Amino acid sequence: MAEYLASIFGTEKDKVNCSFYFKIGACRHGDRCSRIHNKPTFSQTIVLLNVYQNPQNSAQTADGSHLGNITETEIQQHFDDFFEEVFTEVEDHYGDIEEMNICDNLGDHLVGNVYIKVGAFSCLIKIMGS
Predict the structure, then answer these.
(1) Are strands 97-102 and 45-48 parallel, antiparallel or unpaired?
(2) Tens digit of pLDDT for each residue in 35-53?
(3) Angle between helices 121-129 and 72-94 (to 10 degrees)
(4) How far, in Å, CA of 8 to CA of 26, rounded?
(5) Distance (Å, rounded) from C-alpha 60 to C-alpha 32?
(6) What pLDDT, on the 0 to 100 scale, is given for residue 77?
(7) CA–CA separation, 23 vs 121, rounded Å?
(8) Do the beta carbons of residue 124 and residue 44 sit within 8 Å?
(9) Which position has the higher pLDDT, 87 or 93?
(10) What residues are paired with 29 via a beta bridge?
(11) What is the largest CA-CA distance in the chain?
(12) Buried b (16+ CB within 10 A) or exposed e, 36-45
């Protein structure tokens, strides 16, 4: 039995632990989720929740007229500037970054999340200490 439970831990077959939270550190159901959100005591990945704000996703009008004449180039430049600023700030203060992903998803549980994977344990010690 224990072997079976271990084999399904963190999968959609696991009826106790939330598979979404296990995989990405966020769940679309939030506090209303019927499953447990296990927060790891140690991880190489840091999650900064809802940090990136894409100008296209800031819907103020249904037809998108609030965007005026923002071009795809300007939107890409906005993203590039944000990516560079976050990357350099984290790397300057905490050390080498192995990987960084920014969610541009419309789901409330993912929109604007920034996932940063650091390479060295010493980076994590610095981050946890701040």
Answers:
(1) unpaired
(2) 888 877 777 788 888 889 8
(3) 90
(4) 19
(5) 28
(6) 94
(7) 21
(8) yes
(9) 87
(10) none
(11) 61
(12) ebeeeeeeeb
Structure token pair of residue 88 = 């350099």
Identify whether the C-beta of residue 83 lies closer than 8 Å to the C-beta of residue 115. Answer: no
Backbone angles phi, psi at 65, to 5 degrees: -65, -20
DSSP bridge partners of 32: none
Rounded to whole angstroms, the Cα distance separating 17 from 40 reads: 13
State which amino acid sits at residue 91: E
Distance CA 30, CA 77 (A): 32
What is d(CA 91, CA 22) in angstroms, rounded to the nearest whole number? 26
Contacts of 88 (CB under 8 A, 6+ apart): none
Q: Which amino acid is at 99?
A: E
Q: Which of 24-28, 51-55, 75-79 has the lowest mean pLDDT?
A: 24-28
Q: Which helix (H) or strand (E) holds 80?
A: helix 72-94
- DSSP reduced 3-state for 101: strand
AA identity, residue 18: C
Bridge partners, residue 100, by sequence? 116
Token pair, residue 76, equals 């890409």
Separation CA 125–CA 74 (nearest Å): 37
